[in-house]
Amino acid sequence: MPNRPSDGTRINEMIRVPEVRVIGADGSQVGVIDTRRAQMMAKEAGLDLVEVSPMAKPPVCRIMDYGKFRFEQAKKTKAAKAKQHVVKVKEIKLHPKTAINDYNYRVKQAREFLEDGMKVRMIMQFRGREMAHTDYGRRRLDQAKIDLADVGEVEMESRVEGNTMSTIFNPKKIIAAKKRETDKENEAAATVLPDAPPASVPQA
User: What number of other Cβ atoms are within 10 A of residue 126's Cβ?
Assistant: First the structure.
């Protein structure tokens, strides 16, 4: 007996109920018929009998090319995943004792990431007794919200987890839209054919 498809669908001889409601390969309603007869119809057409609604009474089956159907479904799933806009999350780490010039550098990094359409998770790390001064770390993160307000929106307010406090920034909608538009322009530019060589000038 052939192996059952990995998605659990019953096809052909795997369908063992006495009768089924059949939909033809052209989408027509064949009606409720004996399962053996339905299997023979599919076989004679060089196709498969596929159970598409197992919970119906009787179960609904369709005559189709199951291999081709699965291939098309896989293509659609792959295409849908390719179109999904994956947002990367970049982490910026700070400490309560981070010097102002280092803080400014990290804010500059965060700004660049947000302008590139990425999320930023800004993390304040506390060591030992620094946990007694989380208020200072929170003030630093609050200052970062102000410094990044023109390019980032706060997705998650400052939250303490263990010995860290973090805030997550999303790129502002207008920034994200510009990034997508730039990506489209770059993609379009990459598909433009090179200019044709200039026509030769006839000799006098």
Answer: 19
